[in-house]
Amino acid sequence: MRKATFILCGLIIFNLPLSPISADSTLPDNIIEEPMVFISKEVFKDLFYLLKIPSEYVPIAKEIGEKLNIPYQIIYNLVKIESNWEHTAINDRYSNGNFDIGLTQINSTNFEYFYWKILNKPLERNINYKEFYSNPKNNLWTGFLYLNWLRNYYDGDLEKALTAYNCGLGKLNRNKVPKSTEEYVKFILTN
What we know:
The chain is mainly alpha-helical. The chain has 2 domains: 3-38, no CATH class; 42-190, Lysozyme (Orthogonal Bundle), CATH 1.10.530. Helix content is 49%, strand content 10%. It has helices at residues 41-52, 58-68, 72-83, 111-118, 129-134, 136-153, 158-167, 169-173, 179-190, and strands at residues 3-8, 11-17, 90-91, 100-101, 106-107. The strands form 2 sheets. The chain has a 3-stranded antiparallel beta sheet with strand order 3-4-5. Helix 3 crosses helix 9 (179-190). It is globular and about 55 Å long.
């Protein structure tokens, strides 16, 4: 039986049998009869999430995904829930003057720690925290380097890493994870 292949955005989506066609029938011009290359479900899923990432951030997300081995689903969903892909997002909910900033919502109290521990650089005293993390590339790299560090800290357990990313290592290690963090992790892993 002959098959018709349907293509969406350059990706092969379906390869379905056509209804029986007699030997003298011809297929419409828009149906491809050539052998097709199929992609695995995992590759398709990764490409699906990569296509959802705003185009200006795709090169950074691809580099992060490849170098840190973080699926695009995680990259997309984490940034979606943290800042809705708004690089100027600031959450100043803290009464002590601290705040979260940028695409991955890096916390101002952790700036020196992130810079030293995650980036393996001594903190430059003249660096402007808001300026540094308002840059989408700096913010995405730091957020996902931190997530990767947490994943390594928890022996490759991405669920624990995401939990600690949201509520902190202390709460996770003391088994004091809030319900909102459980929902946060579920959203990132299942959407």
